[in-house]
Amino acid sequence: SKETSENLDRVWAHYNALHAALAGDDFGRAKIASAALRKVTGVLGEAEVPEFGKQPWITLSTALVDATGKLESASDIAGARAEFERISIATEAALRVLGSTMPMRIMHCPMAFDGRGARWLQNSEKLLNPYFGASMLRCGSTIEVLNPRGNSSGE
């Protein structure tokens, strides 16, 4: 439905705000964006999600509520970035099923978390690394573009 689509777009918008805050090394703004993300996640009830998307949405909303709560109580930006990875994994899984009205880029930084690497999503083409911020803002690459309405293309 149009309402579901608008609510999902709000989720992606708050996710993007959280990504931008972390890429900008702004811990305070990250906590605010995280709280907004948690709030909008609560608004989009399971009943509003199409049947095929219910399970991914339940998984996403459960993970988001947990990880955003932990991000907001993190004592430093490193703790916030660790929770952001959990938020990103859940968001990517839901986006793959539910789609988005805008293209979303799946990004990867091979150096995050002591070389384990981590993914995130962003809608801008210019790479902004949320795991390192200014110290390595351009570290990483686009590994896939999720086109609107769930059509996916490798890059």
Describe the structure.
This protein has helices at 2-23, 27-43, 54-72, 77-98, 112-115, and strands at 104-109, 118-122, 141-146, 152-154. A hairpin with a 5-residue loop joins strand 3 and strand 4. The model has no long low-confidence stretch (mean pLDDT 88). It is of the alpha+beta class and 155 residues long. It has a 4-stranded antiparallel β-sheet, covered by helices on one side.
Largest sheet: 4 strands, antiparallel
Helix content: 40-55%
User: How would you state the average pLDDT, rounded?
Assistant: 88
Q: Can you tell me the overall shape?
A: globular
Number of helices: 5
N-to-C order of helices and strands: HHHHEHEEE
Structural class: alpha+beta
What is the number of E strands? 4
Compute the gyration radius: what is it?
Answer: 15 Å
Question: β content, as a range?
Answer: 5-15%
Identify the strand order in the major beta sheet.
2-1-3-4
List unreliable stretches of 5+ residues: none
First-to-last CA distance:
30 Å
Quick tags:
155 residues; alpha+beta; 54% helix; 13% strand
Write the layout of secondary structure elements.
Layout: H1 2-23, H2 27-43, H3 54-72, H4 77-98, E1 104-109, H5 112-115, E2 118-122, E3 141-146, E4 152-154
Antiparallel strand pairs: 1-2, 1-3, 3-4
Helix pairs in contact: 1-2, 1-4, 2-3, 3-4
In short:
This protein has 155 residues and is of the alpha+beta class. The protein contains five helices and four strands.
